[in-house]
Each structure stands twice: as structure tokens, then as C-alpha cells.
Amino acid sequence: MLPTLISSPDRAPVEGWRDLAAGLDTARAGAAMHAFIRDLYPICRSITGDGLRETLRRVGQAIPLTLHEVSTGTPAYDWSVPHEWNIRDAYIKNPAGDRIVDFHKSNLHVVNYSVPVHRRMSLAELRPHLHSLPDHPEWVPYRTSYYRDAWGFCLPHRQLLALPEGEYEVCIDSTLAAGSLSYGECLLPGAEAGTVLLSAHACHPALCNDNLSGVALLVALARHLQARPLRYSYRFVFAPGTIGAIVWLSRNESEVQHIRHGLVVACVGDPGPFHYKRSRRGSADIDRAAVRALQDAGRPFEVLDFSPYGYDERQYCSPGFDLPVGSLTRTPHGRFPEYHTSADDPTLVQAEALGDSLAQYLRVLSVLESNRRYRNTNPKCEPQLGRRGLYPLTGGRADSEETELAVLWVLNLSDGRHDLLDICGRSGLSFPVVAGAAHALRQVGLLVPCEPETPTLDDATCDGALIR
Amino acid sequence: MLPTLISSPDRAPVEGWRDLAAGLDTARAGAAMHAFIRDLYPICRSITGDGLRETLRRVGQAIPLTLHEVSTGTPAYDWSVPHEWNIRDAYIKNPAGDRIVDFHKSNLHVVNYSVPVHRRMSLAELRPHLHSLPDHPEWVPYRTSYYRDAWGFCLPHRQLLALPEGEYEVCIDSTLAAGSLSYGECLLPGAEAGTVLLSAHACHPALCNDNLSGVALLVALARHLQARPLRYSYRFVFAPGTIGAIVWLSRNESEVQHIRHGLVVACVGDPGPFHYKRSRRGSADIDRAAVRALQDAGRPFEVLDFSPYGYDERQYCSPGFDLPVGSLTRTPHGRFPEYHTSADDPTLVQAEALGDSLAQYLRVLSVLESNRRYRNTNPKCEPQLGRRGLYPLTGGRADSEETELAVLWVLNLSDGRHDLLDICGRSGLSFPVVAGAAHALRQVGLLVPCEPETPTLDDATCDGALIR
Amino acid sequence: MLPTLISSPDRAPVEGWRDLAAGLDTARAGAAMHAFIRDLYPICRSITGDGLRETLRRVGQAIPLTLHEVSTGTPAYDWSVPHEWNIRDAYIKNPAGDRIVDFHKSNLHVVNYSVPVHRRMSLAELRPHLHSLPDHPEWVPYRTSYYRDAWGFCLPHRQLLALPEGEYEVCIDSTLAAGSLSYGECLLPGAEAGTVLLSAHACHPALCNDNLSGVALLVALARHLQARPLRYSYRFVFAPGTIGAIVWLSRNESEVQHIRHGLVVACVGDPGPFHYKRSRRGSADIDRAAVRALQDAGRPFEVLDFSPYGYDERQYCSPGFDLPVGSLTRTPHGRFPEYHTSADDPTLVQAEALGDSLAQYLRVLSVLESNRRYRNTNPKCEPQLGRRGLYPLTGGRADSEETELAVLWVLNLSDGRHDLLDICGRSGLSFPVVAGAAHALRQVGLLVPCEPETPTLDDATCDGALIR
């Protein structure tokens, strides 16, 4: 075989594109993530309170985290920070006085944000406060009562059906009082302007795929990137769903304009195939990068159009922000039967899947980090590649190497209007091959990067790039 | 089941969108239309003359109609109003003196606009003046000789083949003389600027689907709308084909600029599936509304691209006007074998189909009436829907209601750039559901309509709507 | 049947569009092209030297050709004209002294551009200089050593395997010295501004489909067009591949801005189906014209997207030029097994295929010559076609003629924004039918051409064409 670009004999092998997943021990990373999930699992989280606070404290032991507390009543657009909810105990005692439903056995047993109650009542009186899943009679559902004065218990349907008549004692030893909403942020600074937002909701109690898997992946991602030089700054947000994202946005409007790309992280621990949900924009760089990285991975995946239903992309992609934020999950919310039930437990999420998700996130970020628009410095006719070691040395052969093709594609389309993702799309070549060719051409001075994009996110024209 | 938007317990059910077809008794309407067709059937219409005039008179008995008479010779762009044609009698007598072809049995027997003739001639001399349909030997074809000095007869092919040699007497007791071209207009005024043009050709003699069905549908439509408050003004035009539309356009150039939407009505009485022919623009609001209403109806239909062949959309969509006028038919012209033959008689059109067509027209107009671009008054993050009664009251459930989804879609896309039809397209939800959500949001002040579009039909920017 | 547009009885038949292929005797033209290929076959061409010069001399005997000589060392963008290569003899003698590889038997035996050598050496020493095709053991490959100081021989793999050990005499009696690069140009002037570039590489030695077929086709095309009035000027370029195109571009930058359309010609002699490779622009007029002409021909063909690999479209479509130049071939380079081997000989190319290719090129050029944007002089409503002889004389028939439809389409879309190719695309009618209708409408004054496009190739607005 003839020498090809990458192994050209008279040059050191070019480094190619910078794959952030290089060197990742996915098995080890996956096992660590799973251990972290098991560690957080018993904590009773909610959208405020000590369970959330303790979770963020443990995240802060793993990565540098800034903790924020926002007082009850603080306005945030159409919302305000609610009373802080804390709970010490909750149970139902049957007529015989046995604790038949016990918060200490599973924090899912109490409707999250229940107001305090301690009363005796008949089954008929109690019944409207009980939630179960007739289709999954052994599972306990996850229910919340945010923004309402209500209380309730969740239990297996089988158990509910067997409840005898009689007087029950119900107790929810909770408080709803002025306090604060907690969220944590980790910022890894980058060399150029622009931020990548990575956001996970951290408010769900004993539920693993949704969303301790997201919390664990963000922690692992931050640890992995921490050690590496980065082009963009990375902002990791751990906050309660909906109200947390709304509060974060309301306190970070000046930051928002720097966000170039973003991903909402959830449901990354089950063994299902990847699903990428597009941003509201539909073809933002993050959308193109995520789809390209999934294509290059060569495994089945599904792309979903944006919808205003789901996780905190609902807030990031609200029309007043319209941020380029997508969501990369394995099986999406609501599509696995264990979703929002006690069956979303540590056995549903798998170390192997978690490690694999981390690697896929790194591949997406690698594309973002390397993607640029370049300008061919020799735009009139092809440059002489042979004397620069970028061409097979014997002409006239009927086939041609993929890397040689990539060099020609990058030269041809680097007119300041096409970025490397465009070149992948038009050439059918993978991002690593195209980015490797761009790197090699840059080394020999045939390619220069266009000016960094302006912070407005508009499709800035590459200065001097339009050649004719 | 949980309460949903429409039946939210603490609010009166929202009225949803205003469906103009609500309350329509389609069976009764269809029967009335069929009776009207049978009433008009025997009249010998043409592009001018007393048959057309009598038809308009009967239309004017059903709805308020302004009758216009335009004198012979009046110029209209490349055309001028022709001589008025009237006919009292026409026949062919065979050598034995029997009336074998008789205008009084069917007005299709005479070539429409034939010059007068009264002569005796051999079969050989007569033969070039006889028209028949070899493929349908029992049917009489419909033929015209506009803008030429010619005469002729139409008869069943079977009869033509059986004609013996001998001397025939032919008589067409017609006149072609200075007179006028008649057309009628009905205007229903609306609350906002902008007109909807609804146009039917009224020149065909004893033919029912093409186009007494169109005349009858327009009459029924005007009667139905007359009683209702309307957003747009509606202009119903009953005119002879081609020359009538041309004359109407030439006399209404200042009116034309107010036309926002339009439909040419024909062939709405056969039982075939609906066909929508796009306007020349291809994606005008009328095109989007008609297709959406057909999709929402949930029955098979066909969408045809514009072509400059057909009915008076040829004139309305000529390049000098390029009006947003499509055509909604059942089986289109030329696609049913009875087209332009004596078989297009009162048995071809059916009361049920006519009523159903009227309902479908009303559904299309309902979409036009309700479609708007709105602006979300709380564009940054989602508003709190719960406290406005627009949200299921217990969170955490895995499924979500269609109406809740519609509320989220309308909020997300109401940035002044998307109208409700865009939101249907992107969400996959039906127009009634989306319009109902918009109505509910408007009620609680979360949505305000963008300014009405300017009369230029340009894609006016919604004032203040671009949020960022 | 009723009279139709073309044979309307009261008018002379309109001439329709001007088909440049009309009157072509494809059999005779194909035979002449094949004879020309056989004549050129034995000459040892390269990117410089007397073989190329002699080839251009013979082209100049057939058509008026301007010969250019560009001195060694002349810079051309990133390149410079190399030393001129000439060769008188080359051979390998086996240990017994027999000429076992002989340049005079086939000029493919020597690696093109080999430096001189005359030595005795062992088989082991000789081996790295020998090239063969293991998959086609009877064929001699075509190899070059441009821009490197190297030499070599090509021979059948079967022969290579049978070489005995021993001392061999190798001789390449070549010179590499200051001289010049030759290319030839033929210019046929046209009536309007704008040039069509037709380019063939003329540097390959004894290879027929690639690219003596291209040279022969260009010669036949120039001879055919020479006798005819032309709208565009036609510039035929016969130059060595890559360096020749680069040198031509560097010396013709002022000419380049006049190029409206272009085709790179190669591989037009095999019997395979046509393949059209789009220009970098993808939908330039030449792309639309070539695809339309192939569609109209009614035979299978394939359209390939642009890629920066191939023939001299690589240079013409480099980002600094981005010329509207496509490539029309039969089987493309690299897709036939004989490509770049001794099997690409006069038996691979066929007179019939050559003649057919010439006719197809003429059909593409006919589309380019006739394609225009027109303006309907009667844009408001249809004009009266009947009194101009452009309409069937008896109305009311259910069918309609293709030519009548074409007349209506041309009138409807001739608003200064659509050219005839657009009208073909939207109507589904063939270019001859649409162009014939345009011709007829022009004859009666209903159509006027928009101003010729400006030389900038921008989508110039048709002066006064936007009617509203």
C-alpha cells in the first residue's frame, strides 16, 4: 500500500483531531459513576431542602462546585422560589398499629412536597391521598404536589387493594417554610470565548436513570475535562428541574449570551440506544455535532425533533432565550416502563451503559471543540500537495485514499462559509477524518482558521474569506 | 383521569376555536343544494345572455346579490366583452321531417354560442357540424364555439352513426348581438381588513357537477356565513368562466389588493374524495389552511400542485395578479368520465356529497378565520400554568394530555414568527386543539395577537414580537 | 384530431427550439472520431513534450487552434511549469540481451516522466522500479512520476513473475530539461456576452477512453458548431491535466469572469450510460441543463454530486474560481476496470458510443443556447390565444394538448424570475416543448426576453419583469 496522509513516511504522524475520549477507561468510569449513584440513591431530594443540599455537597466533594442558595420568595420571571420543604418521617399505620407504609423504607412513599399531617382517619377518608400503579402492582409511583397544599402517599397497587377497613394513622412530619432553593455550578474555563452549558436536574428522590445517572455523568465529565486544555468554557449546572433552571436563567441573563452550545443530561444509565433531541433551532451547531458524533459511532440511534415537553430544555429553549441546547439521552423519559417508579432503581442503570454514555458525550464535545470554519490560503486551483507530503507519491492509481479525499474536500470547501461539519455532510467522511485533514493542512499553512464567531451567535462572515 | 385544560374544574370550559361548521345540518343543507341544482339545470346558460341572467336572478333570490352588466365591446386586458348570445330554438330534422335533435330536449344539443343558421343540406355537408363521443355512444358532448363564427350540434354517437343519407333541415334560432355580460357579487363584511374571494363559474348549461354544484355551494355558504360574525370580508363572485373572471379582475383592480385568501369552487357534488389544488404561490395561507383542514378531517384526500390549466384560478393566478387563490374540489375536472357530457346530470351529484363539501369549505374558512400569529407575553421560561388552571394538578405522571402539549407548543412558538398553522405543522397537533390552546392562553393574558397583517400581503413582522 | 400549436393551419409551423443536434449524422461522426483516436493512439503524450505538441498539431489540422507554449519555470499559483520531458527510447534487456520490455511496443511501458537511466542491475535492484497489476496479469498499468526524480517500467504481472534472476540492462533515453508546456485553444465567437468552456485533458499516452475520446469529441463538437450561428462564445481547451488547467487559469483570469457554463469532457467512448457530475455550485445552469437534457433523452443515466476528485473540474471548481463547470461522461473514471491500463485501447471505445456522446453534448448545449428568462407582455389574465392561432379552435374538450399546456405554463411563469428550465421543472414538460412554446409566444409578441444576464453571474433581476 502507498503511504497515506497519516503515516506519511517523511513526516511525523499528524496528531489528527483531538479526541477528548482518548485515554478514557470507560469500564472504570462507568463503575465509579454507578457507585456514585448508589451513594446518592437513599437521599430524599426535592426541588428545595436538605436532601438536595446534601446531594450537591457530595457532588462538590468530587468536582469544584459553587453552591448557590436563593431565598424563598425571590422572583424569577413568572415564578418565585417556593417554601423550602424538609421531611423527617412519614408513615401510615394500619388499624393494628403497624407501619405499613414507611418513608424510611423508600422516600418515594411520600408524595414529594406534601404538607405536614398527623391524623387518624377511615380508609375512605385516606383513599384519595393514596397513589398506585394498577398496571405495575408491585411498583411504587413517584408523585409530587409542588405549588399546592396537599399531601399523599404512594404504595404498590397490590398493597393498596389489600387494605382493610378501619382507622388509620397517617403522619407526614414535614415542614414547608421560608428557606432557600439550592443549586450548584462548576465552571471549567476555556481558551476562547463561548460557553458550553451542561445541565442536569438534581431534584428527583430515589430514582436512578432519571436522573442520578445525569448527575453522575456530569460529575464524571467535569472530572475528565478538568485535566485538559479546552477551547470553550464549560458550565455544569446541577439544579432542581423547572424552578431550578428558571431561577438559574433569571440570575444569569448576562451569562446566557455567551452560551454557544448546550446539552440537557438525563437518562444516560439504561442500556438502550442513544436518542438525541434537537434544540428548538433544529440545526444549531450542537444539533449537527451530536448527530454527526452519533453517525460516526456507527451504532443505531434516533433523532427526535424539539418539542416543548421534556426536561429543562423547555426553559432554555423558551422563545425569550431560544438557546442552542439539545438533549442526549439513552431511552428518553416516559419511554421506559420504570420511568417515575420505584423500579428506576440501581439495577436499572448499568455501569457499562454509564461509561459508554460518558464516552459519547466526550465525542460530541470533541466535535464542538474541533469544529471551525477555515479559509484555504491557496484558493485558486489545488495547491501542490506532493511537495508538502500530503499526497501519495506515485500518481495514476485508480483508487484514492480516504485521507487524501478529505484533504481535497477541506481545501475545496474552506471558503469561510463551510465549517468542518458541513464538509463531513457534503463529503460523507467522518469528523475525525475531516478534522485530521484540516489539522494537517493547518500544519503546512494551507489553512487558517476564520476569526472566532462573534458572541451574538449570528452566522458571522469569515473576515476576508469570501475569495472572489 | 385528571382534569385537563378543557374541563378544568375551577373554570368554565373554554370555548376553543370557533368552528364555522358547528351547528350545520349537512343533510338538510345538501338536500337544499341539490334542489337548487335541479332548479337551475334546464336553463341554457352561456358566457352571456338570458340564461346566465336568469341563473343570477335565482341566486339573488337566495342571497343578497349585486348584479353587474358589462356592455359588449368593453375592453378587459387582452379581451373585450363579446356579443351577447341568446337562443330560442334549435333542431335537426331528418329527411322525413322529424326533429331528431331538439334543443328543447337538452340544451347541450346545440354547440354553445352557435351563430344562427337555417338551411337544408346533405348529410355530407352537415357531418362536420356534428359532435359526438365515440367512447360514450349514448352521451351528448358539451361543445362551445366562443370567439368564432361557427355553429354545430352535439348528439349521441350511436344516433350519429345511424343517420341515413338524405336532405336535412338544420335550424339554430340564435342571436349574437350587442348586449352585455352579466355577473353577480355578494359581499359579507368582516371585522378586520382583508377579503376572502370565493368564485364559481356560472356559464355552463345543463351540467351539474361542473358547475351548478359550485354555484349551489357558494349560495349555501353565503347563507350560512351571513348569520355569523366574521373576521374577514367574503366576496362571492358568480361569473362566466374565463371572460367573466377577466372582466371582474379588470373592473376590480383596487379590490384585488385586499384579497388575502381565495378559493375557486367547482365539482363539489360527486362522491369522490377531496382534491385541493394549490395556488401558484404554493404555500400561501389558503394552501396551508386547506391542507390542514383536510388532514384534520382524517379522510383520504389529494393535493395537486398549481398548474395554469383548470378553472378561473388561471386568471386569478396569472403572473400580473398572482393571488393566493387555490381550488377545492371533489373529483377534479377532466378526471370523471361524465365531465363535459350529458351524463353530468342531477344523478351524478348527490345531496350527501354537497352537504359534506359545504362542511369542508366551512372547516377551511374556520382555519383562516382563527389563524394568527401571537406573541407570548411571558417569553422567558414557561409561565406557571398551574395557578392559571392550565395544568394537570398532580405532577409526575408519565403521560401528558394533548391539550397540555398544545398549550406548551403555542407558548413556545408564539414569538411573532409562527402562526397557529406553523404550530400545527411542527407539533403534529390538529388545528382545533392548537387554536383552543391559543384561545385559553389569550383568556389568561399569556398570549396577545400580533398586529393584523398589512394589506400588502408581505410577511409583516409582528411589532415587538422578536423577543431577544 | 384538432390542430395543435405546431401545425396550426393558419400559420406556418413554428420552428420550435433550435436543436444543435439536428442534422447530425451520428454514425458518420462517430466513425470519424474513432479514426481520429486510432491516429493519436501511438503518440507518447505527457504533461509536456513533443508527444503533446504533435497531438495538438493534429487537432489543429481539424479545427482552428491557437497553440500556446509556456516556458519551464513560469509560476502558476502554487505551481510552476516543470521541465519538459521527452523520450526517444526505453527498454529492459534480460540477462540474455533480449528487449523484454520495449517502449516502442507500447508507450505505457515506461513510467511517464521517468528521469533518464542506463545501467545494469540485478533483478532485486530493478524490482522496486517495476509496476504491474496482479488483478489483471495481462494488462500494463499506466503510471507517472511527475514532480519526482524517479524512473520505472510497467509490464504485465504475468511477465514480471516470470523474470529470472540475473543482470538486466535498463535504459530510458529521456530528457528532462528547460522547455515549455503546450496547450491549444479554439474559440468560436457567439452573438451575446458569455463563454462556454469545454475542456479536455490531452496528456495521457496510449489510453483511449481516458482521454483520447474527450479530445476527439471536442474536435467533432467544434467542427459541428463552427458552421452554426451561436448565442454564446465557445472556448475549447486542450491541455495537460492538472498543471495544464492551472496554467490556463493563471493566464486567463480576465477570461474566467465571462465563463457562464462549462463542461469537462472525458470517458465518452465506452458504451456505458451517461453520468453527469455536478459543478461545485450544484444547481448552476449547466447542472440544470445537463440533467434536463438527460431526462429528455429518456434513457437511464446517473447524476453525481460534485466531489473535489476527478478531472480538471478540480481546478475550475476550486474555491477561488468556483466556476459553473460540470462533467459529462459515460462510465466515469475509475469505474471501468480498463481505466489507466493498456486495456483502455481502441477496442474499448466504440464509434457508435462516440457519436451518441457527441449528440448528447449537442443536446445539452442546445438547452443552454435556448434557455432564457422571459417576460409575459400581457401578465394580467391570460391573453386571447385563439385569435393568435395558439389555441385549439373548438373549446370544451376534456383533454388538452401538451403544446397548449406549454403555452400556458410559459405565460404563467414568465414573470422575469423563472427561466425555461424552471418552467420544465415545474410543468414536467420537456425542454423542446417548452422552448417551442416560448418561441411561438415570442413570435406573436406575447413574450420578450429579459435583458441578458450581467457578466457577474449574479442572479440579475429582469428589468421591469417583476410585474406587481
Give a written overview of the molecule.
Three copies of one chain form a homotrimer. Chain A is of the alpha/beta class. Chain A is 30% helix and 21% strand. Chain A has helices at 26-40, 50-62, 123-126, 157-161, 208-226, 243-251, 253-256, 285-297, 313-316, 351-370, 402-413, 420-427, 431-443; strands at 66-71, 75-76, 79-80, 84-93, 99-102, 117-122, 130-131, 153-154, 167-177, 180-188, 195-201, 233-239, 259-265, 274-277, 301-304, 325-329, 373-376, 415-419, 447-449. The radius of gyration of chain A is 26 Å and the shape is elongated. The model of chain A is unreliable at 1-15, 393-399 and 453-468 (pLDDT under 50). Chain A binds chain C through residues 376, 378-384, 386-387, 393-400, 405, 408-409, 411-415, 426-427, 467-468, and chain C through 76-79, 112, 141-148, 242, 245-246, 249-250, 280, 305, 307-309, 314-315, 317-322, 333-334, 339-340.
Secondary structure elements and pairings:
The structure is a homotrimer of 468-residue chains.
Chain A: H1 26-40, H2 50-62, E1 66-71, E2 75-76, E3 79-80, E4 84-93, E5 99-102, E6 117-122, H3 123-126, E7 130-131, E8 153-154, H4 157-161, E9 167-177, E10 180-188, E11 195-201, H5 208-226, E12 233-239, H6 243-251, H7 253-256, E13 259-265, E14 274-277, H8 285-297, E15 301-304, H9 313-316, E16 325-329, H10 351-370, E17 373-376, H11 402-413, E18 415-419, H12 420-427, H13 431-443, E19 447-449
Helix pairs in contact in A: 1-5, 1-10, 5-10, 8-10, 11-13, 12-13
